Amino acid sequence: MVVEIYTDGSSRGNPGPGGFGVVMIFGKNRKELSKGYKLTTNNRMELLAVVSALETLKTNKFKIHITSDSKYVIDSITKRWLYGWVKKKFKGKKNKDLWLRYLKVSESYEISYTWVKGHAGHVENERCDSLAVQAADFGPWEIDQGYEKDDSLEIFD
Questions:
Q1: Within 13 Å, how many C-alpha atoms sit on residue 46's CB side?
Q2: Integer Cα distance of 18 and 14 in angstroms
Q3: 56-101: per-residue pLDDT in tens?
Q4: pLDDT at 149
């Protein structure tokens, strides 16, 4: 059996408020995830959707198949660009924090990937888009710690 994971990210402005949406299907079970962020980018939300889905899994007994409309995410992994970035310590690359989380959480899974064209009628991709846009537009919004520093937490000079 395979865990099917569909993901999408959204940013209203780039940067701007953002969110991600995930649909996970395993047999007859279905789980949806979404979360909004006060200030972020589209690529961060696309990647965070994948990371969050993998971090939600409770076992590595099953193969994983991830479907996304993000060329950034899919190509970075399948064309092995990510591993070159690691060797160069991410010099000049963005989203190091999320890529490191991805590498850590993905290492114990057998994962395959498929890219789909966004907004082309793919049912699960459209649902993920809806979840991501709703999270971006209506929150509640969290702070994307990897993107912005939460100055409200600093109470002393």
A1: 19
A2: 9
A3: 999 999 999 999 999 999 999 999 999 999 999 999 999 999 999 9
A4: 64
Q: Is position 122 annotated as part of the catalytic site? A: no
137 assigned to active site? no
Q: What is the CATH number of domain 2-146?
A: 3.30.420.10
pTM tops 0.85: yes
Structure token pair of residue 59: 């076992």
Q: Mention every residue, 6+ apart, whose C-beta is less than 8 A from residue 157.
A: none
**Domain boundaries along the sequence of the chain:** 2-146
What pLDDT, in 10s, does the model give residues 41-59?
A: 999 999 999 999 999 999 9
Question: 110 in helix, strand or coil?
Answer: coil
Active-site residue identified among 4, 9, 19, 126: 9
Is the CB of residue 56 less than 8 Å from the CB of residue 7? no
